[in-house]
Amino acid sequence: MAQVAVDVLPAAPARPATRRGAGRGDAIFAGLCRAAAVLVLVLLGAIIVELFLGGLPAFRAFGAAFLASTEWDPVGDLYGAGVPIYGTLVTAVLALLLAVPVAFGIAFFLTELAPAWMRGPVGTAIELLAAVPSIIFGMWGFFVIVPLMAGTVQPAIIDTLGEAPLIGDFFAGPPFGTGLFTAALILAIMVLPFIAATMRDVFLQVPGVFKESAYGLGATRWEVMRRVVLPYTRVSVVGGIMLGLGRALGETMAVTFVIGNANRIATSLFGPGNTIASLVALEFGESASGSLKLASLLALGFILFVISFAVLALSRWLLRARTGA
Amino acid sequence: MPATTIPSVPGRAKDPRAAAALGRRRARVDTAIRLLCTAATLLGLLFLVSILATLVWKGAGGLSLRVFTDVTKPPGSGGGLLNPIVGSLIQVVLATLLGTPIGLLVGTYLAEYAGNSRFGTTVRFVSDVLLSAPSILIGLFVYQFLVLPFGGFSGWAGVVALAIIVVPVVVRTTEDMLRLLPNTLREAVIGLGAPKWKMIVLVCWRAATSGILTGVLLAVARIAGETAPLLFTSLGNLNWSVNLAQPMSSLPITIYAYAGSPYEDWITLAWTGALVITLGVLGLNIVARAVLRARG
Predict the structure, then answer these.
(1) Percent of chain B scoring above 90 in pLDDT
(2) What is the pLDDT of residues B189-218, one digit of tens each?
(3) Contact A172, A155 (CB under 8 A)
(4) What are phi and psi of B75, to 5 degrees?
(5) Under CATH, which architecture does the A84-291 domain have?
(6) How far is A166 from chain B (nearest CA, A)?
(7) How many domains does one find in chain B?
(8) What's the ipTM?
(9) Residue ranges of the domains in chain A?
(10) What is the dihedral of CA B164, A254, A121, A99, to 10 degrees?
(11) Residue A73: strand pairing partners
């Protein structure tokens, strides 16, 4: 039988020709796809190398002290990354503290509490918030949030928490309206939809049987969330929060409008400051090409890339642990 | 055996009054948290409404035909946003044309060729990281890579920066959409004797068209409002120019410059531009969702 089959197959004459043609087409197409995939890796490598090379003069001039120095003196041509790194970390972490509880509330509402007809439209509206361009958040923040902070919120907090022992210093000082806290608030609103959408998606992955079992035992909705859904999705929830952190670290335009643009470390959260991204955006126009200042800005870009790459990589790894095969 | 386990139930729950109190407490906690979560959702919606209301309030008054037909002029002499709008359209369209094919090929590679190979996993991971990477860094990179070596700011540099942002968005949706296709479809095509590339181009891409289109629309919406990468690449241009080798005007950069200016009419134009761009971006998002849903 086998002998017959082997004899018969080559007898069809057209077949080898089409096979070879198809093979070439396949090879070309697969090569194209593969080349595009390689390009993505090359792109990442090029970004890292170019930012590092651009910042190299600053790293050479100031050494490792660049990371900690709080100097930013264009007149004396002395630069350090301390102030913007501090501003970036403080605003991003504060933004998460503000955003995570609200994002969790939205995700809980959208997956367990809202009636079915409401979930689609409300979910879409929250996702649209994520689509609003960064610069619009900046203008809105400057026009709506800053006066609100200066006129109402900050005076109230300064009069109460500002007097408190130990933590008082964080909430002291004049109510400028702009500053680290306002920047964090805007960032919180901007990352809110990303975190909420990720949480909603992972909450929806919990098998219905698990929840039904808990409901069957008489658990309330909150108990099901607390004892069943959250433990099951814990890793992915942290991944979603990290995704928000990655976004908050690099946001530029919105922060630029409300940060107050000051290159010193303010003890008060209401004081003005700068983040890496806002400093680069604000100072770039006044930096001549080839100057040490421009190199310092590129060095700051490299530092921001390393920080946000680490955070985003962690986020992807955590999110993949659950969703990936 | 069963008789011995029953007394091990905590005493508190056996007391009917304590059990009822516990039940009431649990119900109260549940109600409080449900109210808080509903309030959180309302707060989220309030932000969106407040942003839209502010834009309409500040920007709608400046809306007129002049905005779309007149070029930018010095403060106090009227003027519109024609050159920023045209500049933005040119850069966004070219960036989409440049970024989409690359993203499409990468997404296809990940879905149809890579499987769970080490290389495929790495590319997927890097693309996902680039998806969320700060856009200002893309701008700085293109500045180092194209602007400095090739003699200055240009529309092309802006196009490349925006295209780099397009790629990972298209990669993600393309791969997701191709993975949703049933394997029986692929088996049927291969079973007819078609080569793999024909299966992908003629059948898989076509079956996933609406999904891929959604990704492209979302990418367009994303880059239309991007400001930070353009600061270092196409820079902005207050004069009429469609020359891509020169600095090029764009709507977000013009809004940024005008909003920070001390001139009343420029600030009004900035709000009008902000209204236009936001409506455009949100509209694109809604269309993208509708396209995806129409697939059924």
Answers:
(1) 76
(2) 999 999 999 999 999 999 999 999 999 999
(3) no
(4) -60, 145
(5) Orthogonal Bundle (1.10)
(6) 30
(7) 1
(8) 0.91
(9) 84-291
(10) 110
(11) A78
